[in-house]
Specification:
mainly alpha, disordered C terminus
Length: 142
Amino acid sequence: MKGYIKVTVLIILFVGLGLLPAMAGELDDFVNNLNIEARADRDGFRMRLSTEFGIASQRVGVVIGDVGSPGDAYMCLRVAKVLNMSHERVIAEFRKNKGKGWGVIAKNLGIKPGSREFHALKKRGVAGKPNKKTGKGKNKKK
């Protein structure tokens, strides 16, 4: 019976470790897509970040300059918002682990892969494509 439990635990561990890179890559793909969108309208993207995160457009420009890309700036601001911490703290973690990807950075800051917070990082508000409400509702025009 003990052998069965050990094998089960090992299988779960290996499957879990196999999923981590996939989820981390998911965030990196998301950031790459944001970069493509931001390049099409840099000023508009900066204004959307300013609106979404409630910081001055000039400060958004500084964050983009600090991290090197609009997508990474969005992620720094989004992680800070999800974790209710300063974006400076997230930028510091980003600098330490830049080459490892956003999955690792998020994990180091306390966001578990697959968690509600992890999925909230990919939620697009005004900075990305707006979330479109679908379905039937009271306010739906007839």
